[in-house]
Design a protein that fits this description.
Length: 130
């Protein structure tokens, strides 16, 4: 018997999250670890579950998430987008609740690449007159 499953992809900076939602009691597993263990002490990770709170589905789905690339902040934001996209597949009516809160918008900001002759992307070496 195949259990019903909903999928959503989230991206932020270099992080990519694949989110699988299954009907359950609210367990969230990220890369084989519990959510609180994986994001220990990272406050912005709490916002990754914002889509569940907005739609009132906090304890109704088990989430199996695999995330790679980027740092903890980018991974948390990628998970947030992936959960929101998966919830839309659960019920398209959730779009009206998620869209105004910006949960369906992919944050396109990326790190600017370093330029030759400069220390960073735009930071020039200190000028010396003598």
């Amino acid at each position: 018997m195949a259990t019903e499953q909903f999928y959503g992809t989230g991206r932020r900076k270099e992080a990519v999250a694949r989110v699988f939602l299954r009907p359950g009691e609210g367990r969230i597993v990220v890369n084989g670890k519990e959510f609180q263990v994986y994001f220990r002490g990272i406050l912005r990770a709490v916002y990754a579950l914002q889509a569940f709170r907005e739609t009132g589905t906090m304890g109704r789905f088990d989430a199996v998430i695999s995330v790679e690339g980027g740092g903890p902040g980018g991974q948390a934001d990628a998970i947030k987008l992936g959960i929101a996209r998966a919830l839309i597949k659960v019920n398209p009516d959730f779009r009206a609740q998620l869209k105004p809160r910006g949960l369906l918008t992919r944050d396109a900001r990326e790190v600017e690449s370093k330029k030759y002759g400069l220390k960073k992307a735009r930071r020039a070496p200190q000028f010396s007159k003598r």
